[in-house]
Amino acid sequence: MTNSPSPWISVVIPIKDERDNLTPLTDQLMKVLQAREESRDAPFEIIYVDDGSSDGSSEILDRLATEHGPVTALHFDRNHGQSAAFDAGFKHATGALVATLDGDLQNDPADIATLLPYSKDYDLVCGWRTNRHDSLVRKISSRVANAVRSVVTGDRVHDTGCSLKLFRRCVVERLQLFTGMHRFFPALALMHGFTVTEVPVQHHPRTHGLSKYGVGNRLFKSLYDLMAVRWMQTRCLRYRLRDK
Q1: 219: CB partners within 8 A, 6+ apart
Q2: What is the C-alpha to C-alpha distance for residues 221 and 225, in angstroms, rounded to an integer?
Q3: Taking residues 5-26, what's their average pLDDT?
Q4: Segment among 84-88, 92-96, 222-226 with least mean pLDDT
Q5: What is the mean pLDDT of the chain?
């Protein structure tokens, strides 16, 4: 009797009040992942992390987990934030690759296939929303924050706010997350010596639910957290043992 193979990919998705998006998102993810050649030899898993939803998302996630074998639903006792949701998802993920995306259907699940070829050469592949469907205020605040962050951290990533990313397992195992640190995944990966690249992906208008971010909790908080990341970069341990 042989043990079943580990998942070839884990998809981690933080959820906060996305009731109307959950079923179509799951259907799209199942279709995309089932069509992959990798799924012929190994399973995949979809991990939803319910970040204190109060709109009925919790019950829908539990139903989806019952209906679809690859789906797992984790539930926080209250709202803890997106960084905590990613951290919980990473700790439960068992795949050789770990993909992340938002639960609002603005990221296209089909773009996981766009990122996959680059995972052969890079430890972290970041989606880049080159044609964003957001309000003018969100676009401007995001551009300012991204420009400042790129200069300070040196990560040279245009769109770190895009949740669509693909990690090798070794990256998520090394990351130590704090509140707000999900905005700095590329800088944190580079800090630990991992390789990072950026790939254009699609971005769709939001059709259901409301955005959880604005200028106050995206621009100002990210600039505040930037100081902490810069401190971490200057204090990061980078030793190596020499050969005997």
Answers
A1: 141, 142, 144, 145
A2: 6
A3: 97
A4: 222-226
A5: 88
pLDDT of 1: 43
DSSP β-ladder status, 71-75 and 124-129: unpaired
Residue 91's contacts (CB-CB under 8 Å, 6 or more residues apart) are none
CA distance 179 to 182: 8
Q: Is the pLDDT at 163 greater than 60, yes or no? A: yes
With a CB cutoff of 8 Å and minimum separation 6, the contacts of 226 are 148, 149, 152, 153, 184
Give the pLDDT confidence score for residue 119 in this predicted structure.
97
Longest dimension (CA), the chain: 60
Q: How far is CA 159 from the centre of its chain?
A: 13
pTM over 0.90, yes/no? no
Q: Supply 25's token pair.
A: 């998102």
- The answer for residues whose C-beta is within 8 angstroms of residue 66's C-beta and 6 or more apart is none
Residue 131: which of 211, 206, 200, 212 has the closest Cα?
Answer: 200
Two tokens, residue 239: 């030793």
For the stretch 196-213, pLDDT in tens is 999 999 888 777 656 655
Strand partners for 75 = 50
**Predicted confidence band of residue 156 (pLDDT cuts 50, 70, 90):** confident
Q: Which of 95, 125, 129 is nearest to 112 (CA)?
A: 125
